[in-house]
Structures are given as C-alpha cells and as structure tokens.
C-alpha cells in the first residue's frame, strides 16, 4: 500500500475499515483529483491575498464639496486622504487635466491613512475640475478622484471720478489692449525621445531625458525662453534649461540631465516652457523613472 492510500485509510472511521481494500484500489485519476483539490486550497488563498496587496492605493477628496462656488483669487484648500496596503508615497493635485502640485508622505506605512491639504489659487474664472491621484511606494497609481467647482468672474475695480480741469490741460491718455497681429506663444509636445515612462535606473545613475517640442505659436520664442521644472521630483536637475529662439512651426529637442535618487521608488518630474518674464506656456510634459529595490 502506498503513502497516499495509507493517509486515506487513517481518515476512514473504524467502523468502515473493512472497505480499506476498496480505497487501495481507487483509480489513479481519482487520486490525482483529490490531490489537486488539496494543493488548490494551499496555494490559491495566499495568491488572492497577494493580489489584494497589489491592488493599488485608494484616494478620497474630503473637501471642498462638489459644485461649490468660489470668488476669483480665493485659495481653495483641497483636503485629501489616501490609504494603501503597502503605504502611500505621495498625492498629486491636477486641475483641468494638468498637473498642479504634489505632496509626499514623510513616513509611508502599510494601511496607514495619509491625509494632506493641497492648496490651489482660483485665478481663472469658470468651471474647473479638481482631480487627485495617490501613488504607493511601489509606484502604483490610484484611480483618480474628481470634483467640479465654479469660480466667479473677478469683481470690477472702481474707477476714480475725474477731477475738474480746464480743456487746455486735458491730454488724451493712450489705451492698451490686444492688437491684431500680437504674438501668441505656444508649444506642442511631440514625443519622448529618450527615457520612456517607468524606465528603471539604479540609484545614483545619471541619465539624459530628451523631449521634442514644436513652436505652435505665431511668433518666434523670444530670447530668454527656457524649459522650467514646475513640480514633482526634480532628481538633481536645474530649475531651468535655456531654449533657442525657435521660429513658428520649428521643432526642437530639449535635453535635461538628471540623477536617479537613492531611495527605491517611482519618481515623476513635470516641466513646461517659460517666457523670460516667468509666464508658463504650452504643453506640460513629464519624466517618470523607477529606482528598483536591490
């Protein structure tokens, strides 16, 4: 009698051991079925638990409420809470589909809520969609949570009453406004030339991220235009990288040298064109790398 049959015999009550010979003659196929059931109960449950751990973070907007109205210039405080089985690494705020800011968790911990306040200045009238996303320590991103708010038109400023004066002393004052043919500056993101999303680099590795852009405005970019870091993970890059005076329709490739951080995680940095006066314009782009655990 083999080991399998011995196990089956021991599991049979004393009053039915006269049927041992029947157990011993079970077909090979029947014994394999029983064995597979036993193995399934051993391995399927842990696999399901791992799947639950890797399902990614969850994120919720606690405030403001959906559909609230704000005055032009108000600071909107977006209160967010996020949790994850492995720990929340950071939470991002996006406004109308564009990255705005991020807050990192100083002490990520498994199943520990990370609650944070992300401020946004309501400096554009109209309806806006506020979206938040959470990243865990392995780089997995939550499903976005969104709400809409309404920002009122700015209040008109009072015009001082004219003071009495003689006709001889009155001098016409030139007015300013949008002139026909005035320059419109714009930049369209075309491609990631190097470093595709989630490229892995060992900590301390230097790499060159290259983006391709096109001048989609109607004037050359002025002297002093730069590609500027606007948020996320800087990864040792400079604040700005000078950009050439590209004519309308011209295409340029912009290179930024970075260094992979020392802590294993997923890192994302956001960049955008900037005029000499500091005004941002054109499409935002980002670089995303992964520093793996050793």
Q: Could you please describe the fold and organization of this structure?
A:
The chain has about 290 residues and is mainly beta. The chain folds into three domains: about 45 residues; about 90 residues, Sandwich (Immunoglobulin-like); about 100 residues, Immunoglobulins (Immunoglobulin-like). It contains three helices and 16 strands. Strands 2-8-7-4-5 form a five-stranded mixed sheet, with no helix packed on it. The radius of gyration is 31 Å and the shape is globular. It starts with a helix and ends with a strand. About 10% of the residues have low confidence.
Q: How many DSSP-defined strands? A: 16
Strand % is 35-45%
Number of domains: 3
Low-confidence spans: pLDDT under 50, at least 5 residues?
Answer: 46-53, 158-180
Distance between the termini: 50 Å
Tell me roughly what share of residues is in helical segments. Answer: 10-25%
Biggest sheet character? 5 strands, mixed
Give, in spatial order, the strands making up the sheet with the most strands: 2-8-7-4-5
What global shape is seen? globular
According to CATH, the homologous superfamily of the largest domain is Immunoglobulins
Identify the CATH class of the largest domain: Mainly Beta
What value does the Rg take, in angstroms? 31 Å
CATH topology of the largest domain: Immunoglobulin-like
Summing up helix and strand content along with how strands pair, one would put the structural category as mainly beta
Q: Helical region count? A: 3
- Helices and strands, in order, run as HHHEEEEEEEEEEEEEEEE
Question: What oligomeric assembly is this protein in?
Answer: single chain
pLDDT averaged residue by residue = 79
